[in-house]
Design brief:
32 strands
């Protein structure tokens, strides 16, 4: 053999040895069917039987089953078991995989996920606030349905609600007063789906807990107040930043703000924070006074300190028909049906005589106002009648509503100066909208907000009853109405304070 032939044989032998040692034996090339376990997208190992892991989890989580009275406990929400093939990877036991995942992600139980879609709102600065979705978990969807029903009955009279549901409401007969519910609905979109619930979520198992959350937005202990001698519901509510309506919702054992309290009684004063918007549309017929006007006659033979009433005023009465929209028990808008409103008794105007004669000088009729004009002793209602007080002076959702909202007279209806004075503000602001402030020259100021138009300017003198603007919906207003405020001192200035405008009438 020559050298070339010998070298060829040696190379062939070396290649054979390499193949013999590197290539695996035939049995190692056989693929194995397995299941790869992923948790939160990360592989945690292989198992040979998918069902064995489910069975092991259910067996080991007996405590969780007992806690929720559940038939079965399931794998964590982010766990995925996928069929795979392996050649030489190690296969874990079911117990080994269980121990890897049990402290990373919570196990799950069958139940229902309820989503209450949030509704966008506008804050006091006029900026859009995106509504937040609420997610609620229950094991039995009847718990949610009953809790919703209980919460709704916090805002709606229970008997009236039953009659509405059973289509058993009676029509209001001619000449009578009353309320007929035309529609009740939840404005939020609510979805219910069956799912596996992670055990670390808040799971509502009873109606009382869930209805408490739906009403107050928390399961924390409700704040209580011990009634003192002389307390009234209105006093307790106002002093704790609640409206009378909110107090009654938080304390359903009371039916009316005029109910009596007794010393030592414990009442709930937590501010309610409903987790949905319940809209109620009512057809209402209510009795309403028609205020009388006052006519002033001047006598130049009498001195200026002379005043005599020659005809007493008599309040009239009427039946006012309105369509009222409430949200979570609070009136949001009201529209009066003028065609259906009936006058029962016409008012009789009051007539007074005032002297104009000046001591030491010639008398005469005071035909104009000056900056020193004194406010008359009576005040004029600032809108035409009929009207609807949609929100009184007081707290709403923990914030002071520093005036009263008067609705129902209609968009563009006249707004009157409640008394003589000088216009000190006529402008626009994001929350008040178009607004006017009148200084009545005795420390009192009145504010007229959310106007459609303003007809007066700063520095202008106005007389009681002058039309100063028209009713609108500008600024942060949910419906057409007038926000009428009464202040001691210029509104919102240092040292000023708001007052209940109803104290004027």
């Amino acid at each position: 053999m020559n050298i070339k032939t010998i070298m060829t044989i040696v190379i062939a032998l070396m290649v054979s040895l390499i193949i013999m040692f590197i290539v695996p034996k035939e049995e190692t090339l056989t693929p194995k069917n397995v299941y790869r376990v992923y948790l939160a997208g990360k592989s945690v190992g292989l198992i040979s039987d998918k069902n064995s892991l489910d069975e092991y989890i259910d067996k080991e989580q007996q405590t969780l089953k007992d806690k929720y009275n559940a038939d079965k406990v399931y794998a964590p929400e982010d766990l995925e078991v996928v069929k795979d093939v392996t050649y030489n990877e190690d296969i874990s036991t079911t117990k080994e995989i269980y121990n890897k995942i049990k402290d990373i992600e919570p196990f799950t139980i069958k139940g229902y996920e309820i989503t209450i879609e949030g509704i966008d709102t506008t804050n006091e600065e006029g900026e859009k606030v995106e509504g937040k979705d609420q997610t609620i978990y229950v094991l039995d969807k009847e718990v949610f349905e009953e809790a919703m029903d209980k919460t709704i009955r916090s805002f709606v009279d229970s008997d009236s609600y039953d009659k509405y549901l059973n289509n058993d409401q009676k029509e209001i007969e001619s000449g009578d007063t009353g309320t007929v519910i035309e529609n009740i609905y939840i404005e939020n979109k609510v979805t219910v789906k069956e799912t596996n619930i992670p055990s670390d979520k808040t799971i509502y198992e009873n109606v009382d807990d869930l209805s408490k959350y739906l009403l107050f937005g928390t399961l924390d202990e409700q704040q209580k107040y011990t009634v003192q001698a002389g307390d009234t519901i209105s006093d307790v509510a106002f002093n704790n930043k609640l409206s009378n309506e909110e107090f009654l919702i938080a304390n359903p054992e009371f039916t009316d703000a005029n109910n009596l309290l007794y010393e030592g009684q414990n009442v709930t004063i937590s501010i309610i924070k409903p987790q949905f918007r319940l809209v109620e549309i009512d057809h209402q017929v209510r009795a309403q006074d028609i205020p009388y006007e006052t006519e002033t006659r001047y006598d130049n033979t009498k001195y200026s300190n002379y005043e005599e009433t020659i005809q007493e005023g008599v309040v009239g009465s009427q039946l006012v028909t309105s369509k009222v929209q409430k949200v979570n028990g609070q009136v949001e808008s009201a529209v009066i049906d003028n065609g259906a409103t009936r006058v029962l008794k016409e008012p009789i105007k009051r007539i007074i005589v005032k002297g104009t004669k000046q001591r030491g000088g010639s008398g005469g009729v005071n035909s104009g106002l000056s900056s020193n004009s004194k406010v008359e002793g009576y005040w004029l209602w600032p809108t035409r009648t009929p009207y609807y007080v949609s929100s009184s002076y007081g707290y709403r959702w923990g914030t002071l509503h520093d005036g009263m909202d008067i609705a129902g007279a209609g968009f563009g209806s006249p707004i009157y100066a409640s008394n003589n004075g000088i216009v000190v503000a006529s402008s626009y602001k994001y929350d008040n909208g178009e607004y006017i402030v009148i200084n009545h020259n005795n420390g009192y100021y009145t504010m007229y907000a959310h106007l459609a138009e303003r007809y007066v300017s700063v520095g202008q003198e106005v007389s009681q009853g002058d039309t100063i603007g028209s009713m609108g919906r500008t600024g942060a207003a949910t419906g057409v109405h007038l926000h009428f405020g009464l202040w001691r001192g210029y509104p919102y200035s240092r040292g000023s304070s708001s007052m209940n405008p109803m104290s004027l009438f």
